[in-house]
Every structure is written in structure tokens, then in C-alpha cells.
């Protein structure tokens, strides 16, 4: 569908996103001309994504976002450029989709509450099947372990990020006291006490497990099988390309593990999705964890912290910012499930059971 034939289906229908992307490209200052924009948004996220077709036949990908701070948006993309450069010469040197630069720095464009960034179009090879066999689970574990190890080396020379899990959780803790914020999301007043207790639990457990001493690396959190491609080799594979940086941050590697657990779960990728804790306790994740540990060993405290990384994901990306990451129909359902299922069940979930899977 041509982007000029329909504006993005966002709540703020007054914003002409194709025109915004065109103005951003003009500000980029390149000699090419945009001949066509084609919207390729997934319509799960609130971001809008476009194929930008240029008059020389080349294509870029544009992302338009209206969530959060422009300072964080700009800094995230600068850090990703650093990450890519520092992995040069490794087997992951071409894995991450490059960000379009201006004067050797990540180009980002701001107009009002909207931000735009351009990426070079990433080639893709094979995609993982919806249900992975045991060989593919072992391959995912090995590839993720190697990618994390390479990223850890890059992180030693990367700039620090201004975002932190502590500030995100503190922001949620404070805003829970705002009745209008709760009412806008359909939260009962009793939710304030429940969620503030969850925030305190996260902060206390993170400190007890040694969060501050954990190695911080660039993580992407969202490893849905539509976000990366691989080169399949019978029952094995190697990472080929990766795109989508919506949930990028600098944190312990454990923040990537929930979506790894979702990729390897027995029922496979689902069109109708939820964020239950169950994938962590399937035999498939035990297999993943065992083979990850053989390549890039995990400390016991790191494995126990997986529970808190999951708690943070629910608190931050579903409860605090869900309306910015998910379309309204998805957001309301996921927030309701978080309050009634995800967080209550987490209290009785025994993550020490995962330690038995470490050789």
C-alpha cells in the first residue's frame, strides 16, 4: 500500500507522516530524490516504518516515532553506530542494520513531538520457523552467546547511556500516585499499592543480586523471529542480519533472555501473543540455557536475575509505556493480563530451578 494513499493509523491523525519523512530526508541533505514511500509498519507497535524508494533505485528504511525523549532517541542511535563500528572485524561486523549518517554521526530528525531516523535496508536470508527443533535451539543459544560476548568487548569502549532501569522504575513509582494517569489506563486505585510494591521488589532484588556489578552491554530485548534473519544449515544456523532497535539499551545480557525463551517455546511463534512467565520453565529454555552457558558462562546470580529482568520488562514496557509501544487494542489487553496474571504469578515462580541446567 502506498504511504501517500493513506496516513498512518495512529491516534494523532493530524500528522502527515509521509510528508514528515520527506522533510526529514530533505534535511539529510543527500543528492537523491524520494520517488515513493511505502508503509511497511507491523501495526502492533505505535511506530510507523516506511520503505523509502530513491530515484537511483536504492532504498532506505525510515522510522517515525513520537515516544519518549528526543535526547534518548538521538543518543540511542549514536550508541548503536558506535556498537556497529566497534564490532568491525568480527563475525558480527555486518549483522546489525546500519544507521544512515550525516557528517559521520547518526542522523536523526525532530519536528515537534515526532522523530525520524533512516536505516540502510538490511538484506535477509532465511527466517527461523515458528517452532524450532532441538538443533535450532542449540544454534540460537550458541549464536546469542557469541553475539553477547562480542558486544561485551565493544561495550568496553562505548559511551555511557543516560537511560537506566532504576530511573525507569522510579518514574513508574512516582507516576502511580497520579490518579488521572491511572484512570487514563483504566487502572483501579488499588493498583497503586500493588505496582509500587512490584517496583520496590525489583529495586531490592536487583541490588541484592548484584545488578550494579553485572557487566553492561548493548541489548535489543525484542528478538521476535521477524526482527532478524539467519543462514540455515540443516538443523543449525548462523545469525545473518538484525534490524529493529525499538527497545535498545545498555544493560546486563539477561534482558535479552525473555525473548529468547519465547522464540524457543514449544508452541512456537504466535499471532495472538501474551507475555506470561511460562516460557522460562519449558524444557526448550533449559536446553537453550545449557548450551548458552557452555559458550558464554553465566554466574548463578545472573541466572536468578532473569526473574527481575522479566519483572522490569512487564513494569516498564507493558505497564508504564505500553500505550507507546503497542496499538490500543493490544495495550489494554496486555496491561490487564499483567495485573491479573504476569505479575501475580511471578511471585511464586522459582527461578532457582534454572540453576540445575548449568553444567
- The CATH topology of the largest domain is given as Aminoglycoside 3'-phosphotransferase, Chain: A, domain 2
Q: Over the alpha carbons, how many angstroms does the gyration radius reach?
A: 20 Å
Report the principal-axis shape.
Answer: globular
> Overall mean pLDDT score?
93
Order of helices and strands: HEEEHEEEEHHHHEEEEHHHHH
Which structural category fits the helices and strands? alpha+beta
Biggest sheet overview: 5 strands, antiparallel
CATH architecture label of the largest domain = Alpha-Beta Complex
Can you describe this structure?
With 359 residues, the protein is α+β, with helices and mostly antiparallel strands. It has helices at residues 17-28, 70-86, 134-155, 165-175, 179-184, 191-209, 257-264, 283-295, 300-320, 322-325, 328-346, and strands at 34-39, 48-54, 59-65, 101-102, 105-106, 108-111, 114-120, 217-219, 228-233, 236-242, 249-251. It contains eleven helices and eleven strands. The protein is 42% helix and 15% strand.
List the keywords.
11 helices; Aminoglycoside 3'-phosphotransferase, Chain: A, domain 2; alpha+beta; 2 domains; 15% strand; Phosphorylase Kinase, domain 1
Please specify the SSE layout and strand pairing.
Elements: H1 17-28, E1 34-39, E2 48-54, E3 59-65, H2 70-86, E4 101-102, E5 105-106, E6 108-111, E7 114-120, H3 134-155, H4 165-175, H5 179-184, H6 191-209, E8 217-219, E9 228-233, E10 236-242, E11 249-251, H7 257-264, H8 283-295, H9 300-320, H10 322-325, H11 328-346
Antiparallel strand pairs: 1-2, 2-3, 3-7, 4-5, 6-7, 8-11, 9-10
Helix pairs in contact: 3-8, 4-6, 4-9, 6-9, 9-11
